[in-house]
Design brief:
heterodimer, A: mainly alpha, elongated, B: mainly alpha
Chain lengths: 256, 361
């Protein structure tokens, strides 16, 4: 779960390609450890059996074989139940519609769903129950061959069962747990994109025009230069006008 | 460092009696020992705290006005650093709260833990369930997009059908003839002030009643087994609670990453092509309202108000009707079948509502 969330934060989907491989690699040893621990504590408390050897691994590979075999069987059995159930439901609904042409759509959807989902669930539960039964037989056989009967009373068995699940040094456990949480939190926020990787078409950010910064000294200098230039142009124009007047040249009249 | 920590601890203990509080909190005996089935209450408290934290972070940017609510939510999603994740976590956290409330109520019902002497715990729990649903309803409007606007419009119209108080409630919530600024303001205040305060008070009361009556323990097992396995709240149940909280946190985070919140168009009084629909946990009720037998004024009242109210009243009366001390669910067939029928009904109607979308156009 932790690995899946970290992969998702990195925008890698854990159910495809490298994400799925990483998830499988991480989950296998955890599964083996959890199966071993559960089997040891359960059989110790309930049946007074002490299990020896790599019981987790033995139960894991048998479970994996059963899951694969029954997974395939379930795929075909449930698939067949869905298609048969749906066609049956459709014919029943068609029959009802002949009798009641105004049969409402909302009721029809619920009835159709019930008609095909109930047999499908029954088939899925049956396949699951058979798979569990087979796995139960395998567990029994494995445990009987590796288990050693203990004469310890129930209270002692419960105490050992209890300590096998929770370590004695609680302080150390809390510190290590908190440390892992802090490290994972830091890693999560580092890999998480700061802004959304899912931009919406409904959101058009307004691009604000950046105003040019005003520099008063430069503006004054520019204005002064413009004034000096304008003064020079005016002076030249006045000189030209005076020269024309002096020469007695008449101005040209356009239009009427 | 240890000496300093010890001195600080002693200082606080001398003033407020920290040791006795700690003993009371952690050394509560759990009959039959710790169990995974008991984690739901703690997980709900954790989700609520996370909703408060993410809600406060969202309030730093959210503007509760009809002119700016949509834009500010879009701003949170697209401009604020990590805003998209915080908002998505808050959104999925609300759904997680509903799921865990259902799980918690189911566990209490199946374990027969509502029976004497825990009737008060059950009644306050039902009130808390109502508050969680109210949180979902009021929070749904706040993004102010088409989905939010129309879900609220439909919800308030349904509320309007309640006899005597319906008209007042609908007018009070809307604050005008159509949902607008007044509606948003009222929903916002109820969502961020009224409901959290009520939930904190009732959750405290729930815990107080629970601690007074004590945990019910498992419904099966020999006296010797129960005696041997009886344990304190710390450390085993605490560890189970922590692991469950971590699993819930990671699930909500995964959902926020896989399906982050995306808004529809800004709310307008014209639904256009959009078909109004409530949040997924109200879909079963919504689908029930689509049934022909519940059409018309009376039918709508029956499906939207009468049946849910009667169901809640039946749940409230349950500890007083079911007085048998038997707690084993396999020896209470009526309870088991009733629970299964209600759960299957909710699931089937919810899926039907999703399938019904295809026929709306």
């Amino acid at each position: 779960m932790i690995v899946a969330v970290l992969l998702l934060a990195m925008q890698i989907h854990p159910w495809e390609g490298p994400g799925l491989t990483a998830l499988l690699i991480v989950s296998i040893p955890i599964d083996i450890w959890a199966l071993g621990l559960t089997a040891r504590t359960y059989f110790l408390e309930r049946h007074g059996l002490e299990l020896e050897g790599p019981i987790g691994l033995a139960l894991w590979w048998q479970g994996a074989v059963i899951v694969v075999a029954f997974g395939v069987a379930s795929y075909f059995a449930v698939g067949a139940a869905v298609s048969v159930g749906k066609s049956l439901a459709a014919s029943i609904i068609a029959g009802i519609k002949k009798l009641f042409p105004q049969f409402p759509i909302a009721e029809q959807i619920t009835l159709e769903l019930l008609l095909w989902s109930i047999p499908t669930v029954i088939v899925a539960v049956l396949v699951g129950a058979v798979a569990l039964q087979v796995y139960g037989w395998r567990i029994k056989a494995t445990v009987t061959s590796t288990g050693r009967r203990t004469t310890a009373p129930l209270s002692e068995r419960v105490r050992r069962w209890d300590y096998a699940r929770v370590p004695r040094d609680q302080g150390l456990l809390f510190i290590s747990f908190a440390g892992v949480v802090v490290l994972l939190t830091i890693a999560f926020w580092i890999v998480l994109p700061v802004t959304t990787p899912h931009p919406s078409e409904e959101y058009k950010p307004k691009v604000a025009k950046v105003a040019k910064p005003m520099k008063p000294e430069e503006m004054l200098r520019q204005t002064e230069t413009s004034l000096v230039q304008a003064e020079a142009v005016l002076h030249t124009l006045e000189q030209e006008k005076a020269k024309e007047k002096k020469e007695g040249k008449k101005p040209e009249h356009k239009g009427k | 460092m240890n000496a300093v920590a010890q001195k600080v601890y002693d200082f606080v203990d001398e003033r407020i009696g920290l040791k006795s509080i700690e003993t009371k909190m952690m050394n509560e005996p759990i009959k039959g020992g710790s169990r995974w089935a008991y984690v739901f209450g703690s997980v709900l408290l954790f989700i609520f705290i996370m909703q408060v934290v993410t809600g406060i972070l969202l309030m730093f940017y959210y503007i509760p006005s009809a002119d700016h609510a949509y834009a500010s939510t879009q701003y949170i999603l697209h401009e604020v650093d990590y805003g998209w994740f915080i908002l998505s976590y808050h959104f999925w956290g609300s759904s997680a709260m509903v799921v865990i409330v259902f799980a918690h109520m189911s566990q209490v019902f199946l374990w027969g833990a509502y029976k004497k002497p825990r009737e008060m715990v059950w009644l306050v729990g039902l009130a808390l369930f109502g508050l969680v649903m109210a949180f979902g309803f009021t929070g749904y409007l706040l993004p102010w997009d088409q989905r939010a606007y129309w879900a609220t419009t439909v919800g308030v119209e349904i509320m309007d059908k309640t006899p005597v108080v319906g008209d007042f409630l609908a007018r009070f919530l809307k604050g005008g003839p159509t949902p607008g600024q007044m509606t948003l303001s009222r929903f916002f205040v109820i969502h961020v002030m009224v409901l959290p305060a009520a939930l904190m008070g009732l959750a405290g009361l729930h815990l107080f009643f629970f601690r007074s009556a004590g945990p019910a323990g498992p419904f099966r097992g020999s006296t010797e087994e129960l005696k041997v396995k009886t344990d304190f709240f710390f450390p085993r149940q605490v560890w189970k609670d922590i692991i469950a909280m971590a699993a819930v946190f990671l699930t909500i985070s995964a959902l926020a990453l896989i399906e982050p919140v995306e808004l529809l168009q800004e709310a307008t009084p014209d639904p256009g092509d959009y078909h109004p629909e409530p949040e997924w946990y109200f879909l079963f009720l919504f689908q029930l309202l689509r049934w022909k037998m519940f059409s018309g004024e009376l039918g709508q009242f029956m499906a939207a108000i009468a049946i849910p109210t009667l169901f809640m009243l039946l749940l409230a009366a349950l500890p007083f009707i079911d007085r048998s001390p038997e707690r084993d669910i396999f020896k209470r067939p009526v309870a088991l079948v009733s629970w299964a029928v209600v759960m299957i009904g909710i699931v089937v109607l919810t899926i039907s509502a999703i399938l019904n979308r295809e026929y709306l156009d």
